[in-house]
Amino acid sequence: MINCYHCQLPVAYPGRYRASVAGQVCEFCCPGCQAVAETIAAAGLEQFYHYRDGPSLNPRELARPALAELAVYDRPDLTAQFTHSAGQGREATLRVQGITCAACAWLIERKLGQLPGVQQVQLNLANHRLHLRWQAPALGLGELIGQLQALGYGAEPWQPDTASDALAAENRSALRRLGVAGLLWFQAMMATMATWPEFNLDLSPALHQILRWAAFMLTTPIVFYSCGPLFRGAWRALRARHLSMDLSAALAIGLAYGAGIYTAISGQGELYFDTVGMFALFLLGSRYLERRARERTLVGSQGLARLLPATCLRCVPGAEAERVLLAELRPGDRVQVPGGGQVPADGVILAGQAQLDEALLTGESQAQARGPGEAVNAGTLNLGSALLIEVTATGSGTRMSAIMRLLEQAQAQKPALAQWADRAAQVFLGSSLLLAALFGAVWSWLDASQAFWVVLALLVATCPCALSLAIPTALTAATASLQRMGLLVLRGDVLENLNRIDTLVLDKTGTLSEGQPTLQQVLELGAVPAAKALDWAAALQAPVDHPLARAFGPSPVVAEAVHSEPGRGLEGVVAGQRLRLGDPAFVSQLAGTAAPKLPTNHGQWLLLGNGQGPLAWFAVHDRLRPQAPALVDYARARGWRVLILSGDRSPALAEVAAQLDVQAEGGLTPEQKLSALQRLRAEGRRVLVVGDGANDAPLLAAADVGIAMGAGTDLSKARADAVLLSNDLASLPRAFALAARGRRIVLQNLAWAALYNTLVLPFAAFDLITPAWAALGMSVSSLAVVLNALRLGRTPPATAQEVPTWPRSTC
Amino acid sequence: MAALYLLIPAAFLIVGVALYLFFWAVDSGQYDDLDSPAQRILFDDDDPAHHAGVEQAERRRDER
């Protein structure tokens, strides 16, 4: 089997789509990939294929409006909205889809940079935003987006909204807080250490006092500026009457700072200012890293907008239909939806027969027939002929937005994310507070003047330094190795929660199955060979943008006068004869014969026939992912209950359930799915959900652990706890094993932190410890914790068949 | 030890300047994209293969 040079999908018709890349003739799977490779080669950027480290996305996976549609962006009012002038030129930011690796940035920057008048092209790999500056009046935004499409990427103008502005501002302020803590801590540390008798034997009392106040001045911004959010979080926890990690850290920092001030004034006792800075730096550093990791994973998943087309055709009475942006659409407008196009808004059909693919909303894989007067929902795909609809609701009024609201609710019901760390902190904090109080009482009875210092030494020595590192470092290391396995962890509590799962809920379409119909079998009925029949069938399907058409692939012959009979099939002229493809009864009508019997009851069969009679059967399946049975077996071996919840009503669901031998419920709306999940949770079960569609999104958000497929909708990915980027279900069992190891290492870390604290406790309690020893002990303890956590970064060697490689094509 | 009377204010001054520069860098967006520059450096524009490709493409364009 030859794979496409561009996208690595199998080439169905070798020799049909070829192009010369870097002096070699390469095979492509479709005209789309061929055109992209030709564009790249024509620009002399073939090195892209050397630089990239994974296959590119097939161009048809991306929303690629026709050039005529892109012209809408050159309308003066929209140009003004999406670009702004910079000096003599214009600037714009685009969101690019289809970025798979850093080489994509190289390709885009080089190719657009070649355009005359383009001054700056910069792609941010973290958020996939492309910043453009150009100085050419003739060059419009539509043309630039067209250029990106020619390279095999999708793009749309990006405008900052309040949420993304707020996120950017938060990121910057978090970095500023971290920087302040770091820079000032170094200085405060030096000033503090200079006062230690171990380092300095001849310090005059006056200088000692100056150094104390210098350290005080350097530490104050760390406490009030850098740790501001920490104290606010602690205050919130206190008001909600529970002990949290924030509280224990705030207490340690607050007390050490208070003690430092007392020492600065009185000149007695130990200076704890350096401890304050060190805590702050460790804590803020780990939180900043966590924030960055989380943000990177949310790229391009900003909900609704991406699921709908960017523009649509608005019909105005007495004039030609005009292309407008979705945002300009109002209820009451009339919109034309072409065959194969997405419905842009909720509405009522005025004219036309629709075959609607509602999989995005309901998970139902069979197209639904709708006629005039019936309602259609935004986000559904029109598989029939062109429709005229009257818009009843747009944007936030649509049913799709209702699903989004539903899942926001589901998310709000989810227990607090940092619960686990909080629980550990509660135990630690509770016991160290108790011990401090106990020893404080004992010491005030023995020697009242020393009591405060003993309590403070105790609190600082037992403070959550190692603890604050124990969990984040292990999580970070585990997250990194999970990512190498293809599982992107979005929330910190996934690793912990994975260890408690006892129920696995799976979606069918797109999760257990590949989500795309594939041609399984061609049965010839005598008159023509199977290969010829396939060519003809593919020719009939070619003009139709339908998931089924993709299964048939491209065809070397061209069909004329193709039209579709909604719900029944296609009719057209190929090689001078009238052909029909689809429902057996519909196809047999052409020849006036009785419909032949289906070869089997298994799967979906399409018949091809001409005026003389039937020619061939085609079996089309949404194929089960090959790794699905292994996942189900693994889950069963661990004693989990396995359940399929699907929106699909077709018999295919029962087949899949029988094949995997699991219980299945079909035809569920998103609301019913959610209530089914809530029932399971009410029984006390811990549920892992694996899903892909927008209709699974509420489920993913409400589950104990929700894992979205990488090929799934953005909506589902945005709400999941983890994303299976590789779409390889086989990596899930390995991820579960790693989660178990991660938990073990966290427990080891916590045990070590507890052991260290117990060892150091007597010294602190009996006033035997000096700050230098405390600092050393703390560093060693922290280092041990970090090194232990890093062991998680070493993934166990994968067995040969599991190695996720992609075949580098050789032409 | 008298040097400390000079060195402590100097340390304050330096840390002040450093903080000012750091805030300026953060606010002007220097830290907004921490991933792309690290990757960008890996692509060698002086790669002879890349140069050859571009030249060849230009020649083809000229011929047309």
Automatic annotation (TrEMBL), chain A:
Pfam families in alphabetical order: ATPase-cat_bd, E1-E2_ATPase, HMA, Hydrolase
TM helices/strands, residue ranges: 178-198, 210-231, 243-265, 271-289, 427-446, 452-475, 746-766, 772-790
Membrane-related topology note: Multi-pass membrane protein
Organism annotation: Pseudomonas typographi
Name of the coding gene: cadA
Keyword Mitochondrion part of the UniProt annotation: no
Residues covered by the HMA domain: 90-156
Keywords: ATP-binding, Cell membrane, Ion transport, Magnesium, Membrane, Metal-binding, Nucleotide-binding, Phosphoprotein, Translocase, Transmembrane, Transmembrane helix, Transport
Protein name: Cadmium-translocating P-type ATPase
Keyword Phosphoprotein: yes
Subcellular location: Cell membrane
Superkingdom of origin organism: Bacteria
Gene3D superfamilies xrefs: 3.30.70.100, Calcium-transporting ATPase, cytoplasmic domain N, Calcium-transporting ATPase, cytoplasmic transduction domain A, HAD superfamily/HAD-like
Family according to the record: Belongs to the cation transport ATPase (P-type) (TC 3.A.3) family. Type IB subfamily.
UniProt cross-references to PANTHER family, sorted A to Z: ATP7, ISOFORM B (PTHR43520), CATION-TRANSPORTING P-TYPE ATPASE-RELATED (PTHR43520:SF5)
TrEMBL record, chain B:
InterPro entries, alphabetized: Cyt_oxidase_maturation_cbb3 (IPR004714)
Record's compositionally biased regions (Basic and acidic residues): 48-64
Membrane-spanning ranges: 6-26
Region of interest (Disordered), residue spans: 42-64
Alphabetically ordered keywords of this record: Membrane, Transmembrane, Transmembrane helix
Protein name: Cbb3-type cytochrome oxidase assembly protein CcoS
Lineage of the organism: Bacteria, Pseudomonadati, Pseudomonadota, Gammaproteobacteria, Pseudomonadales
